[in-house]
Amino acid sequence: MKLPSDADRSGRDLGEEELKRLGEVIESGTLTSTKGTAVKQFEARFAERWGVGFCRATASGTAAVHTAVAAVDPEPGDEIVTTPITDFGAISPILYQTAVPVFADVDPTTWNVTAETLAARIGPRTRALVVTHLFGNPCEMDGILALAERHGLPVIEDAAQAYGAEWDGRPAGALGDVGCFSLQQGKHMTTGEGGVVVARNPAFERRLRLFVDKAWGYGDPRPDHDFLALNYRMSELQGAVALAQLEKLEVLVERRIRAARGLAERIAGIDGVHAPAGHARARHAYWKFPLRIDARAVAGGVDGFSTRLRERGIASAPRYVEKPAFLLRCFRERNTFGGSGFPFEGPHRAGLPPVVYDPDDYPGALEGLAHLVVLPINEFYEDAHLDHLARCIREAAEGREGTGG
Predict the structure, then answer these.
(1) Residue ranges covered by each domain of the chain
(2) Dmax of the chain from CA atoms?
(3) Catalytic residue at 40?
(4) Helix (H), strand (E) at residue 39
(5) Which CATH number fits domain 9-244: 3.40.50.970, 3.10.180.10, 3.40.640.10, 3.10.310.10?
(6) What is the pLDDT of residues 276-332, one digit of tens each?
(7) Is the pTM of this model over 0.85?
(8) Cα 127 to chain center, whole Å?
(9) For residues 397 and 273, is the Cβ–Cβ distance under 8 A?
(10) Which of 187, 214, 288, 323 is catalytic?
């Protein structure tokens, strides 16, 4: 059985609503968001949905994170604490804004940072905390927000995978000071590429607004390019699709949650396979379906299990990322700006110890990844798909070889 895929129409809710709004934009002849209305409408409705006072659409999720980091405005050599289990696009903006990424360890069962792991990495040059709600599972935010308040640090939420996720009934992305979202092909809602940045803290609104527009003060009495910034604007074509997708979002999230819970019920009791478990105070939005695999019960551990799933035509990603961020060549070799080693090295780091990414400092991340297999899930999984997937998971866990997709 072929499962619906978010890489194509089988797993993406794209249709007449998007075409209608695209047609309106094409008919208008205005494709830039500086002159059009679709992106502005999307931003207003997104802000209302998340209960925040500010929203800007961006060209990508990476652009959204970059805009958030730029709003914090770190000095060269300042440090921003983040997770080692994330896409590189959530880390590179820290470097581009001349700050040093400092990685906090994670809980090995949720793969999320915690207040305790973040606290261990805060130092005299820490400028902000980045909190990633991995796979749509919210971090335990009470402790994190209290920690940030004690240290006077802003919290940037990376909610790229967490549309519809909630902590204590409040939406992920609107809990900290700034929230970032992605509209990439495989997210809960999509424009192919694109992103969103929102602010709960009004202190960051102006820099967020300007950074997306090359720091040009549209609407100012005497506009100027106020600081170094980029063009990260979303086009009207993307804005039209985003509007239609936003109208469907809650239904799409509910379908994913229903599918994920159905799959969890079907695989309960399989020896060595553990479905994702959300916190009692959280709403898990299930961007993907992460499994924790016990190698003592599953032959070959995550690699053997994933191989047997692929033999059955089931896409699976052992360990999710090829390696945690602290092992990436960019950080190991300081491949940033020419051969300078900047921002890791230089007079701006005078008096500070050298930046060292020692794997021994991240036991939770290494353990968590060693037991992690990520399965796809989307809003078009029906009971027959869930039955098939659960059967394949059971057979793979029992060590039975597959016969092809």
Answers:
(1) 9-244
(2) 70
(3) no
(4) helix 38-50
(5) 3.40.640.10
(6) 988 999 999 999 999 999 999 999 999 999 999 999 999 999 999 989 999 999 999
(7) yes
(8) 20
(9) yes
(10) 187
